[in-house]
Amino acid sequence: MPFNPWRSILDGNKMFGMPKQRILFRGITVCQSLSLYSFVFFLLQPPPSSSLYPCRPFILPLLPAHQDGSRAGRDRKKTVSFSSSLSEKKISSAADCIHSMVEGIELKKIRTNSRVYLRYYLLDAGLQALCWEPSKKESDKARISLASIREVRTGRNTETFRTSGVYEQISEDCAFSIIYGEVYESLDLVANSAEVANIWVTGLRYLMQYGKHALDMLSSSQDSLRLGWLEQLFSSAADSYGQEDIEEEIRLQLAVKLIQSVNPGVGCRKVEHRFKELQRVRERMCGNERVTRQEFIEVFHDFCTRPEIYFLLVQFSSNKEFLDTKDLMRFLEAEQGMTQVSEETSLKLIQSHERSEEGRQEGYLSLDGFTSYLTSAECHLFDREHDTVCQDMSQPLSHYYISSSHNTYLIEDQFRGLSDISGYIRALKMGCRCVEVDVWDGPDGDPVVCTGHTLSPPLALRCVLEAIGKFAFVASQYPLIICLENHCSLKQQKVMWQHLMRILGEKLYTDPPYEGESYLPSPYALRQRILLKGKRLGPDPDGEDGEVSEEDEGAEMCQRMKAVSSGVSPKRFQLLKELSALVTLCRSVRFVDFPTSSKSQNPLELCSFHESLAVRLAGESPGEFVNHNKHFLSRVYPNPMRIDSSNMNPQDLWKCGCQIVSMNFQTAGLMMDLNTAWFRQNGNCGYVLRPAIMRQEVSYFSADTRDTVPGVSPQLLHVKVISGQNLPKPRGSGAKGDVVDPYVYVEIHGIPADCTERRTRTVTQNGDNPVFDESFEFQINLPELAMVRFVVLDDDFIGDEFIGQYTIPLECLQPGYRHIPLQSLTGEELPHAKLFVHVALTNRRGGGKPHKRGLSVRKARKGRDYTALRDLGVRAVDEVFKMAAPPLREATDLRENMQNSVAVFRELCGVSAVANLMQCVLALGSRVSGPDGAPLLLFNLLDHYPTLEPQGPLPDVLRRVVSTYEMMVQASRAVMELSDGIYDKILQIQSTAMEFHEKLQSLAAKEGLRGRKVSRALESFSWNITILKGQADLMQHAKAEVQENMKQVHDAALTGNLTKESVGLRRVRSQTR
User: PH domain: from which residue to which, for each copy (predicted)?
Assistant: First the structure.
């Protein structure tokens, strides 16, 4: 056969030695399944003029992408993109950015008429103007002088963007605006990637500061802090290893270790290969494997410079090369949500993280020091305040979710898996507070623990109890519940009782309960005590052993259901009276239905629900299930048909208020990730306080709601997935060699209204430092029950593979720029594998109120939605609720007027929808300078409400800022002055209505209501009470929000040097987050 060069190129194994799935050609990745015709067509395409993009983006029509980004797309063929990644080019200095801008690139220009124009933008050679082509304007007019630029704004944060018909199609991370001229015109641009946008924003900001002398400044400095430190590091290494006789060289292995000391995630082979590659290019083949000073610095730059962190540093740096104490203080306050920050705080942080001696002495944080800080435990996504118990532990036991294990003794599957004491030890060390002990008659008269009707080997009960006694309170001091499933004869029950008394002794809680108690004791009151959950004999004057119904979760559920439906009593067995006496607070009873439980169940009694039954009840009677769990404990155990020990979704039951959802701790996966993460939020003590709406005596909450929750203010979560670091090859994956093509899913787990997921694009062939730069927004309707999960997968044509995950309750998120340590399938932390993200959440110091299309709080009073109360059909009660209409309307108006005014002020400041007022004022500070450099606007901080005062004639845009700020202050003042009176009115009406609660059914009967109408009246009453309580709380929250807003304005004005000089002025700090 004649030689075919195209076919040889496509034969990756023969020509390039690459894995079958991928072929490298011209520095790009090509799919081997690509047809010869398509590949030749690609080769014939001329490259664009920009050297930034050596290969034109080219999407193969024969490989369709899944448009909605859902996981269903994994089963389809993937999209292949032939574009080179800028992140590989390590553009990580202002000089790199400026050189790229001089070469130019195509950007999309957005106009007010929603038209989009593709233009080629570049800097002129003299670095004095921004030019574009083609243009209908004359060449001298198709340019903007850099001297006229007032601000470079990131995101879709100008009026042109907001009113554009293509707003939703524009990525927040690819958009930026140049504000210029005397009348503050805007040039609104969209790059084809977030990396290009970062390059232009960084370069323009640098040029604004240093003008045409920017490159001279850069060449003279060249990041002297880093260079000085690296030269010192190199010299010290040479001296310590006695290499001073060899000028300017150290051993290769020593150079590799120095780089790994800064970036421990990078592999030795990669660093060695880079050194040798560099030496090959320079034709410096060194047989003794030595590295020069210049080679060391260059390779260090390659492996230890993260462009995304450099772009962030430039954003906050006043001199664009390092952060001084004031820069760092502004970053900590505005982005990281820290309180009580001072220059001393910044200096202490610099001393801890800055690498160079010069930086520590001068109080400067270089790029390497900033990277060290951002990757430290201080910038972990998880709020360390939740590492200890931080919730009220004095509520009744039924008000908490309780970490629970199913068949704790198993370490494998249900049917024939191994049993081991280590199952109990592991669960208890993980903070589990409810373990299961299935006891059966054993040999030699000694009871054993095992699963009935299976082949799993037994354990001696004595050994199990000894392990429980030893480890019961190692991880938590709060009560441990032992679910005792008793299948023993009376003789061996006696032995079981003896073991319990001898081994657990005084730890067992056997105190008789107080008669007439409506609730169980609290976890705090039951510290260091062990509660037995099991069957208990009824009141018997003879005090003898008696019969009870058997509790056998291992038996087929259908047999028990048949017994109930046919009227046959469940199987019964003899129970030892001494064993019965040990069961006090958790007495097992059979569930019949919710009306029966409401009438006859005692708070000391607990129902165990088969998974299928619990899920059915959650779907059919979600409101009744929630109300049932306000007073009674409910335990849900997995379907016995889960012989592989798989897990149910705990949130399907948590949303109904079920406290004890038993999980197979030995089975890793999504469900255990959710369970483990959920119980971390309260010091991993095994108890988490349920949402308030599930605990209040009278409240309305439906577990299957797909809308907002009455009385709960939704929050807007903004997540930007910036980059990943050191992502390992999926375990067991060998098809692609060392190639990793990662992408990230961001999942929200909670009530049905909140459950959703979004995914980033795939970054090809980069597991070391893939840059995603994609933002997502989520509306969270019940924040107290929401969790966020980050999942990293490897994009493969055969099937995507799991790389790592991290799950965290929403309540534990820290705002700002954070690193996430990824975990393996089994929950272990992956060495050095992280995600870098930015998080902002409304009503926290890291963010403001929501304003987004589809989630806008900006409504005129005429179009405003006022919360409506429901008619019960009971005249006396309805009259009371009608009194609430005026204060509820007034509360809504006050709150939304304030929030609307803040949203308008935020827009004029040109910041994102989730920015707080500190970020607004700091952003404003960059554009209020007059021709002489003096500020045109200053804050007067003498009053409780800072005033914004003009310092001379103002352009129209700044006059609008002043008037909008005054409207915001006026609305805020109204909230502070009127909120307490409205709050008292609403609570008074609620209190009056609650007087009818106990006699509501009799009043309904007098009105002639029967059956379903009575149930609807009771439900409407709960709805109205929930609305009144919720609106009163929101009024108080609005007042606290105003106080926080004014403090942030005050602090930002001081930090940004936007204050009038005054005597006795001192910094006000916010104590809330």
Answer: 99-209
